[in-house]
Amino acid sequence: MGQKHLIPSPMPTIRLTLFITVAALIATACSSPEPKPYGPVPTETQLAWQRMEINMFCHFGPNTFTGAEWGSGQENKEVFAPTAMDCRQWADVARQAGMGGIILTAKHHDGFCLWPSAFSSHTVSPQQDVLREFVDACHNEGIKPGVYISPWDRNHPSYGTPEYNSVFANMLREVHNNYGPFFEQWFDGACGEGPNGKRQEYDWTLFNSTVLNINPNTIIFSDWGPGCRWVGNEDGCADETCWSTVGDSSWVPVEADVSIRPGWFWHANEHPKTVEELMEIYYNSVGRNGLLLLNVPPDNRGRIPAEDSAVLVAFRAERDRIFSHDLTEGAVIEAYVGDGIMTAAKSRYPTSNLSDTAYHTYWMLKDNDTSNIDLKITLPEEREFDLVMLQEYIPLGQRVTRFHISYSFGEDMGGAWVASGTTIGYKRIIRLPHPIRTRTLYITIDHSLAPPILNRIALYNTQAQ
Ligand code: FUL
């Protein structure tokens, strides 16, 4: 990455002219028709889901009591014996941690159902209906319930035969009809792994249609969608280049799952990650156009341990500390286009929309430029920051393929390229290699599949108190 020739700062009179021109454009822009979407776009439900940003995963079942990660399905039902289960406490912890949804493992690979299913004998008793308590607790605490029901079933006698697909569809029908609506249905891709594992040809078309016929607004997670897709690892880490589009026709955003502890289920000798580790995960998931699904396993009492909830509350406080003060406050943002010599560009929607917090206001150029577009941010005074947050207005599609960030050392003193990236999507947080102190920052869209539409640029200082 070489040095970049920065645009000399316009003289005050030119600035005034620009300001008047921009103001006039704002007035005309308001009457122009809405821009057309580019490529696949999220449904309203997918957009609402993406805006949740962080949800909680709860792995809970016989493994919580046996120490296993993958139960054999031969466990005695009596092993599942929480001594002080309190699903309201889970929901309360999620709310305090800033998470809007919880997904519970209602059936893991051992086949044990946390609801008294009519389609299996390996279940809780009707008096011990965990799924009911979970759903009620979520509703009481204003948290959206979601459900994980593993297709892989190491207990069910019909597993490995075509009949199992209809058994599984019946279970889905039972859960979604009697306990729904669920904001998300999590389908694990596992299918008889390990020695002597029976394999099943899953009828995904049947499974998906069963859920969506009951509730078309449930986001279905699987390795490939259709609602959202697996990030491809269990570390909560999305790729730097992260598209929510798949091919030319589908919007299937990424969900990054990871556990707060080494295992997915609670084990007495394991401990939660630190706030620093969780922040790293946050930057690598939410900060890379993904949704973070953070697993917080209840213990053998049926409660989230105090050490986990303390870390979660501290993780929330850390995000609040960093992201509550956007350093673009009072900034003027101007748009330029060109290759080498940049010229002031007309905006169809004003650049001031980039620094407001309203989600549905966005900036877009009047002309159809797709490359070499500079957004010059002039701060009221020199400020220090080390994070740049960008958001594309995804209801109109994901467009940007390449951008870079540069800054000016001072009036007529040149400047430097400081970071570059590929995709932006719903949210992209760029950690600068070192803190920058400047009045003038440039976000350059090097290339976009269609005219870029951004709804937010924000600057933060991770060291700010
Ligand atoms: C994996 C499963 O095999 C793990 O047990 C866990 O549920 C994780 C979220 O997905 O594929």
Structure characterization notes:
The chain has 465 residues and is an alpha/beta fold. It has two domains: 44-323, Glycosidases (TIM Barrel, Alpha-Beta Barrel), CATH 3.20.20; 332-460, Galactose-binding domain-like (Jelly Rolls, Sandwich), CATH 2.60.120.260. The chain is built from nine helices and 19 strands. Strands 11, 12, 13, 14, 15, 16, 17, 18 and 19 form a nine-stranded antiparallel beta sheet that branches. The site of beta-L-fucopyranose has 5 residues, from loops.
Please name the defining characteristics of this protein.
2 domains; alpha/beta; binds beta-L-fucopyranose; 465 residues; 8-stranded parallel beta barrel; Jelly Rolls; 9 helices
Topology:
Layout: H1 12-29, H2 44-50, E1 54-58, H3 63-66, H4 87-96, E2 101-107, H5 130-141, E3 144-149, H6 163-179, E4 184-186, H7 204-214, E5 219-222, E6 228-230, E7 245-246, E8 250-251, E9 254-259, H8 275-285, E10 290-295, H9 306-323, E11 332-337, E12 343-344, E13 347-349, E14 363-365, E15 371-392, E16 400-408, E17 415-421, E18 428-448, E19 453-460
Parallel strand pairs: 1-2, 1-10, 2-3, 3-4, 4-5, 5-6, 6-9, 9-10
Antiparallel strand pairs: 7-8, 11-12, 11-15, 13-14, 14-19, 15-18, 15-19, 16-17, 16-18
Helix pairs in contact: 4-5, 6-7, 8-9
Beta-L-fucopyranose is lined by residues 69, 188, 190, 257, 264.
